[in-house]
Amino acid sequence: MRGRPLLFTSYEADQALMPTTTKKVALTVFLVALVLVPVYDVIPFAPDFLAKDDWLKVLTNVMIFAIGALGLNILTGLAGQVSLGHAFFMGLGAYTAAALGAPEGPLVGLGLPMWIWLPAAAVVPALVGVLVGPTAVRVRGLYLAIVTLGLVFIGEYLFRNTESWTGGSQAGRTFPRFQFRFWKEEEPLVDFSRKGEWFGIELSNEAKTYILLLGFAIVATLIAKNIQRTRVGRAFQAIRDRDIAAEVMGVDEFRYKLLAFGISSAFAGVSGALLASFVGRTIPERWDLLLSVQFIAIILIGGAGTVTGTLMGALFVIALPRVVQDFTAWLSDKIDAGEGIIAKVGDVFIATSGDDFGIVNTLPGTGPGLSVFQLNLVIYGLLIIVFLIFEPLGLYGIWLRVRNYWKGWPFTY
Amino acid sequence: MTELASRTETHTPTGTTHLLEVDDIRLSFKGVKAIDGVSFHVDEGELFAIIGPNGAGKTSIFNSINQLYRPQQGDIRWKGRSLMGLKPNKTAELGIARTFQNIALFPHMTVVENILTGRHIRMKTSWVAGALWVGPAKREEIANRAKVEDIIDFLEIEQWRKHPVGMLPYGVQKRVELGRALAMEPELLLLDEPVAGMNLEETEDMARFILDIQDELGIAMILVEHDMGLVMDIADRVMVVDFGRKIAEGTPDVVQKNPDVIKAYLGEEFEGAE
Ligand SMILES: Nc1ncnc2c1ncn2[C@@H]1O[C@H](COP(=O)(O)OP(=O)(O)OP(=O)(O)O)[C@@H](O)[C@H]1O
Ligand SMILES: [Mg+2]
User: Fold this and answer.
1) Which one of A7, A20, A248 would you mutate to disrupt binding with B, by most B Cβ within 10 Å of its Cβ?
2) Cys-Cys link to B186, which of B4, B70, B73, B97 (CB 3.0-4.6 A)?
């Protein structure tokens, strides 16, 4: 084997998730780097801004959206079925979690521990997915998108009108916290939602929550990857690529589409429950079409069909608004300081006073230009179009090209 | 559907049962008669060829056997049991594999993944076992990977293993598609124009594979092909169809001498040959 890292001597080695030592080392380093993010402020040369609570929150959101996107990737990327119904199943997962896990009070809540409410947030949406699935999977392509779009509107309507479960549009409701309990005891075994000391290191609640969700995201990634590379994942991809050939190979198209729908809904449910717990309180309108579209954006920008691409997409789409916000704030500072060329260019970009023209208007109230939020939407839209036309493999495709370039370096082919 | 199902149960084959019996099937599309009363049978291990001019209904016969098309009349029996009304994936489970006239591989999947998909019906791993990569799932994946590797060896496509099939040359894709069908360990293999568009060398390779499949694996085959030389060389029996009807059937020698065949098929062949 020495000197020939790509020569495998058994199929087992060839089929391993991380077939080469280089990959194993790289992945280990990457995972350690992720776990250590909350203490980057004391590690030399680490990007210490990431360890700040507000950035930890952004990263936690990335994990939550990654879990949901991995699910949609199974349905859309692998099985080739475009669904806009993801937000509905997320809402379903969130309210399942609330009904089981939230403390007893005016709204439905049984106060059960996390090891019950989190799996339930996967099972209930999956069952509902399999129940409504037959209608959805009989139609194809654009029609499927429309049917699942209907699901989001029906869901929002239902959530708004079941106030004892959801709290309604005015107040919303609270969700169970990230706490490990054996049963209903007062003091949780592990509390991820309160700051405290772990292994001699003082951690904020944001840091603890981040670590918990990093763990969940890793588990979800492993599951998604394993599904993709085994029998059922191949059946999904076969249906996506050539449905008739898949059937003639013995794949029951209807059954497997339904299964993909169910699995995807389970991921969505977990993602929804985690999102709701993370945010703490939300209203039924949280589970709207825009949320579904965000997931479509993640898998399209990341590169539909690949797990790595989906993760990159989640990081990109969720962290982008924060980056744009930081960038505009930084530009504003430069303009105020009146520093050279950056200030001149920045002035065109940002409106600093009511009568000043700028592509982005950071001032409160109305005026010409886009708000930071609108700018984000414009960037998403442009990116989706650019990726669909020029790089259907998304960020993953770009990553592949960069990697292959360096693999062969210094040779150009 | 229920009517068809009950017919399945009441049917008792008379005399010897053939592997596949096609019994007077008729299929039309909005007035176009694609198959107009065709009957034939195939026995175990036999290499049966169907020839006929373009649009004669050959592919439609294959699609009917697979139940992708539902003939309006007649019956198709597999080991004496009717296939009519089954879902296409059931015909695969019963032991019928297939290649397509216009290659129908899974273009985004690699050669190995395509052929592994052919193992679908021979594997059991549920999505849960697969997702958790538990012992049995892992063992099954590895065992089946070994089978796939045997097929890759047999078809001499080692060098393309990890390539997405969509980017492979046409001749290689044809082989991969044959490999995917073989991976199903079928008892009957339907080959729809396996050498169409191939050069002489590729055609000879394919002929060798087909004969090996018959000799070494004992798999029965129905071969649809326009290459007369190939058909007359390797087929045990030949059926000639024209306008959805059978006009002759027999050994290659007999069929070649049949005046109807010469008129209807070979005549046209001369015109179309250029
Ligand atoms: N799905 C369909 N819808 C409508 N007409 C069809 C369909 N499939 C086949 N036909 C018609 O049935 C007839 C037989 O077609 P078929 O494809 O079976 O011929 P073939 O013998 O395989 O021809 P070729 O040698 O060109 O492959 C043709 O007239 C064709 O147009
Ligand atoms: Mg044909």
Assistant:
1) A248
2) B97
Q: Specify the 3-state DSSP secondary structure of B12.
A: coil
CATH superfamily, domain B1-95+186-274, is P-loop containing nucleotide triphosphate hydrolases (3.40.50.300)
Using CA atoms, how far apart are residues A154 and A272, in angstroms rounded to an integer? 17
Q: Which ligand is nearest to the CA of B60?
A: 1
Strands A196-198 and A201-203, sheet pairing? antiparallel
Chain A: nearest CA to B147, how far in angstroms? 11
Alpha-carbon distances, residue B133 vs A97, A118, A309, B112, B125 (angstroms) = 27, 22, 22, 19, 10
Distance in Å, alpha carbon of B240 to nearest chain A alpha carbon: 25
How many Å separate Cα B35 from the centre of its chain?
17
Cα–Cα separations (whole angstroms), residue A228 to A14, A141, A162, A305, B184:
16, 22, 37, 9, 21
CB distance B165 to B110 below 8 Å? yes
Closest CA to B36 of B71, B1, B10, B86: B71
Q: Is the dihedral of CA B198, B202, B207, B213 positive or negative?
A: negative
Compute, in angstroms, the gap from residue B224 CA to the centroid of ligand 1: 13
DSSP run (H or E) holding B36: strand B32-42
pTM for the whole thing?
Answer: 0.90
Q: What is the model's pLDDT at position B5?
A: 43
Question: For residue A208, what are its two tokens?
Answer: 């603890």
Amino acid at residue number B126:
S
Mean pLDDT of A377-386: 80
Q: What is the ipTM of this complex?
A: 0.90
Q: How far is A218 from chain B (nearest CA, A)?
A: 13
Domain with CATH 3.40.50.300 in chain B: 1-95+186-274
A266: left (phi over 0), alpha (psi -120 to 50) or beta: alpha
Residue B66 Cα to ligand 2 middle (Å): 14
Burial string for B87-99 (b: 16+ CB within 10 Å, else e) reads bbbbbbebbbbbb
Confirm if B56 and B269 have CB atoms less than 8 A apart. Answer: no
| Ligand 1 within 6 A of CB of B27 | no
Q: Is the CB of residue A257 less than 8 Å from the CB of residue A100? A: no
Q: What is the mean pLDDT of chain A?
A: 86
Between A308 and A351, the higher pLDDT residue: A308
CA distance A317 to A295: 9
Residue of B nearest to A227 (CA): B131
- Residue among B57, B77, B55 nearest B67 (CA): B77
Separation between Cα atoms, residue A122 and residue A68, nearest integer Å: 11
d(Cα B175, Cα B165) in Å, to the nearest integer? Answer: 11
Q: Cβ neighbours of residue A39 under 8 Å, at least 6 residues apart?
A: A51, A201
pLDDT of residue B183: 97
Whose Cα sits closest to atom 12 in ligand 1? Answer: B34
